[in-house]
Write a structure and sequence with these properties.
Blueprint lengths: L7 H10 L6 H4 L7 H10 L5 H17 L6 H7 L5 H10 L6 H13 L3 H10 L1 H8 L5 H16 L5 H11 L7 H9 L4 H14 L5 H7 L5 H14 L5 H5 L7 H14 L2 H11 L7 H12 L13
């Protein structure tokens, strides 16, 4: 972790309180705050204008994405208590890679108790990380099971906002318990569009081949959003059985669907997927050159499944 300077974090919060925008280089002082520093930061947080609070959370999330050594979780946890839902939503969304018990507890509390559905949906989305950790026995069982049970409760609650239910369902995708597949199927056949899209994402998140039947069908949908989600999910499952139907979407009329198909073939990997990518490269728009090159590199390294036998090539 990149440690904050002894009092550098205070200069950042003071600048914000005066309506000034610290440079990105200064924001690194907010990384890895101690408990005492976080408490002091929290005391000064309300003095910052809303637009500057929102800007800070967004900029910190961007920095963290670019540099894995930066840890802004203590600041984000302060923002989770912000009086404004927009700030809480941004902060909850930014914790999608959090792995600590404190973040899990805080996100659970927001999911169950926050008055704003946008905040609740963001919290549910970030709890997916803990579902994944629990699936691989990399998180404490009791709290991990509480996360899973709470998400299930929300996803099954027909009285809850559909966006919140959808986020909860998507988060549950990685968990291989007997009730998860029936819940995904129930939402897949729901009349609500958002729930059906969440079901497709949960299928991909499960990484289970048995969902390919549904995903391949959705690759032929008249709706480009469903084709996009189906291609993306096929990439996550990374089964070579999906290569041909996904390759058919490389020339899709919708550019986003075509990009999703390119990335999915890279994630599946293998010589057949790579050949489809090379063939498409010769006729693809120039704007797609970078994403095709990235997908080809991924395919050559074996996609999501790891290295392939070089003799296959």
């Amino acid at each position: 972790m990149a440690a904050s300077s002894p009092r550098g974090f205070l200069s950042v919060i003071e600048s914000l309180a005066h309506g000034e925008q610290p440079a990105f280089s200064q924001l690194t002082a907010l990384s890895d705050l101690s408990r005492a520093e976080a408490a002091e930061f929290a005391a000064r947080w309300p003095a910052v204008r809303l637009k500057d609070r929102l800007s800070l959370v967004a900029r910190l999330a961007e920095l963290a994405d670019d540099n894995v050594d930066l840890d802004f979780a203590p600041v984000m946890k302060v923002a989770l208590d912000d009086v404004e839902p927009a700030a809480r939503t941004l902060a909850a969304s930014s914790l999608w890679e959090a792995t600590d018990r404190g973040s899990a507890r805080k996100l659970l509390s927001l999911l169950m108790n926050d008055s704003d559905d946008g905040v609740r949906a963001a919290a549910a989305g970030s709890l997916r990380q803990f579902v994944l950790l629990r699936e691989f026995d990399s998180f404490e069982p009791d709290l991990g099971d509480e996360v899973v049970d709470t998400l299930r409760q929300v996803a099954e609650d027909r009285g809850s906002d559909c966006a919140v239910r959808a986020a909860a369902l998507e988060a549950l995708g990685p968990r291989s318990l007997p009730w998860v597949d029936p819940l995904i199927m129930e939402c897949y056949y729901d009349d609500d569009r958002e729930l059906k899209i969440a079901a497709l994402r949960a299928m991909g998140g499960s990484a289970q081949d048995h969902w390919l039947e549904y995903l391949v069908g959705e690759l032929q949908s008249d709706d480009p959003e469903f084709r996009y989600e189906a291609a993306t999910a096929c990439g996550l499952i990374a089964s070579e059985d999906a290569v041909e139907p996904v390759a058919e979407r490389l020339d899709d009329d919708d550019a986003e669907v075509a990009i999703a198909a390119v990335m999915a073939l890279g994630e599946i990997g293998g010589p057949i997927a790579a050949e489809h990518l090379r063939s498409f490269r010769a006729r693809a728009p120039e704007a797609l050159e970078e994403v095709i090159a990235e997908a080809l590199e991924m395919a050559a390294s074996g996609g999501l499944g790891g290295e392939k036998d070089e003799e296959e090539w």
